[in-house]
Amino acid sequence: MNEPLSDWLVVDLSSGIPGGYCSRILADGGAQVIKVEDRAGDDLRRWTASGPLPDGDDGALFRFLAASKRSVVVGPEDTDALEGVLRQAHVVIWSPGSAVAELEALRPAALLRRHPHLTITAITDFGLDGPWAGRPATEFTLQAWSGGIVGLGRGSLGRAPVAVGGRIGYWQAGAHAAVATLLSRSCGPGGQIADVSVLETLSASLTYCPVSYFDALGRPFRKGRAIITPGVGAAKDGMIAVGVGTGQQWLDFAVMVGHPEWHEDKSLFRNRVRLAPVIDEWFAGHTVDEITDLASAFRLPHAPVANGATLPAFEHFRARGTFVRRDGVVQPGPPYRLTPARLRPPGPSPRLGQDSLYEVAGDGADRAAELGRRDGSAGRDPESEGPGADLIAGLRVLDMTAFWAGPSCTFPLALMGADVIHLESTRHLDGTRMLGAPMSEEQWWERSPIFAALNANKRSLTLDIQSEPGRAVLHRLIATTDVIVENYTPRVLEQSGLSFDQLRRIRPDIILVRMPGFGLDGPWRDNAAFAYTIEDASGLTWMTGHPDQKPLEPYCVGDPNAGVHALAGLLLALQHRRRTGEGVMVEAAMVDAAVNVTAEQVIEYSATGRLMERTGNRSLTAAPQNLYRTADVDEYGGDDSWVAISIETDEQWESLLGALGWDPDPRFVHPAGRRDHQDLIDRHLADWCAGRKADEIVELLWPAGVPVAPVVQPHRVGDLAQFEWRRHFETVEHPALGAARYATAPFRLSGRPGPLHTRPAPMLGEHNAEILASLGLSEDEISTLTSEGVIGREPAGR
């Protein structure tokens, strides 16, 4: 009973990956999870990438997601007994699709009316309301709607763009659903609906604030598409990726590959794709180990391109114990590590209906009574300190992060009302401040829409913590702080005298969240970590791209995925502190979060020996599925306009035939036949789409019940009717950028209807005097810190 959520009872009415991953995160946190299924059971029980399972067997992916849970089978005649469980529960996880979840009495609004104490986390494709609610969709068409397929310019113009592989949207929705649940239960007593949209999750995970960027600066963040160079290279003995994100890295890379003369042509940095044949030849002439050694020496971001077969064998993961064998299958451990709090070691997954609903109801009553006695003996008020205690109001968070991963962890806390102080120094600005106006413009550091999007509602403090006066001020601030989040390289915190033990001497109940790229130990500990290196090392790159080409780095998911998992770990730490009063250190390595959302590759290979590989825009769960070029002229005057069509069921196939007026073909009646003849079906669909505009195609197929979507440019997502209805973007007036739309979170809490943006992202050092005065510093002391350069409002050296 020592886990953070050991006093939580969760009723899981969901099916599939999103709800399964959400409730797995809660179960790992110690919650008792009751999986409620209909007599057919969760479809995921019968899923494997390698084909049909023997009757009665559960797939390895289901067993991974269902670890530590209990299973009860419920029919219409069992609703009274289920009501008894719901009265004792704290949380319900719900998604449509199963016979039990579709019962009218078990839909989210009906549940909340009868049980107003519950948090009901509903996971749906488009959200519970809006003009698109309930419309047909698949993870693939949702990627198209989200702007994520063309997100950061993925793929060359010679072919169709490609979706990110591995059903990443469903995994991301599960992680965000867990955070929404934890936030809901941390924002005070009283139930509410946490309404999670897979579409909004994909927009947050696969695109880099494109609506805000376009609104503020009048141009897209990225225009067109291209293969990232150098990116993924085929070495003598495998694949390895090397990243070049800055001018200095390009100069170093040119020297590394033996072409220092590339320095002389300044245009090559932005047009280096034309050097791809030379770079490919260099990769082919070296081994992975040789390239690793060279890239390390030049301090260039790099990582092997991992897959389900190779991931557990890497020395770094072996040294850290990242992968474990459970139930005969290799799988990743948790996405974060808590000290001294602990996570529950995974227990066995349940067979369908192995638990009696009536026994579960009785166990819940006994457990509630025991928890009540324990709370009473400790002299606690269950309403103020129980699972629904308000842990966010008044919470002070010191945000010592930069770029995308770290700020995306703290941003939802700021939206929910926590006091988040974003710490920079005038010598070391948050790197996203440079992603906007050119440095030749006035106040360029205040004109980054990406910084503004990730840091709304926060306050800004600049402080040189390398100086003695700066460290003294920092210690005073830490004494008033509940949570510190940092994503420096691992050695920085210790060198600054800010280890967890040292911090606890200042604030005994401090929560420290550390977000290193590859962890605090292991051979890769000090490797540079960017979104793309994390994607390479975790298998996400391997699953993305056309099968006849090298894999493509998604160039996006690694950062926000790290942020949402770090936030889940942080919220678990808050629950531990609620129960014990102890401080907690959370090690939320970016790569540990990534290998959890790519877990299926390792699990499938371990269980069946099948190596999952990229399939372009096709899918193991849908046929036909692909992108088809339309007759539209794109906004850049080209023909790069596409529509996504994805057929997962026989009913959807019949709907497609009816909408197109095509005669049934006996070869295509069943999924296996459609998959075997997908090339033929693709040719017919490509011909049909080529003569029509995307809007015409969508208006014909979508009402007929066919999952379909245009491939939306990311900066146009804010204009879509569903986003507008759900007020996902809120217009904010920024002092330097003017009015622009900024995203909220990919979920809505019914108890916090919005608006959620209460103030724009802060100007550099905007709140220096305000924060330091609250710590007891006088005006003279603040003036001295300014004159000595310890604090400031402009970059040093201007």
Brief summary of the model shown:
This protein has 798 residues and is of the alpha/beta class.
Describe the structure.
The chain is α/β, with parallel strands linked by helices. Helices cover 36% and strands 14% of the residues. It has 30 helices and 24 strands. Strands 3-2-1-4-5-6-24 form a seven-stranded mixed sheet, sandwiched between helices. The protein has a seven-stranded mixed sheet with strand order 12-18-17-16-13-14-15, covered by helices on one side. A three-stranded antiparallel sheet has the order 7-8-9, sandwiched between helices. The radius of gyration is 26 Å and the shape is globular. The model is unreliable at 371-384 (pLDDT under 50).
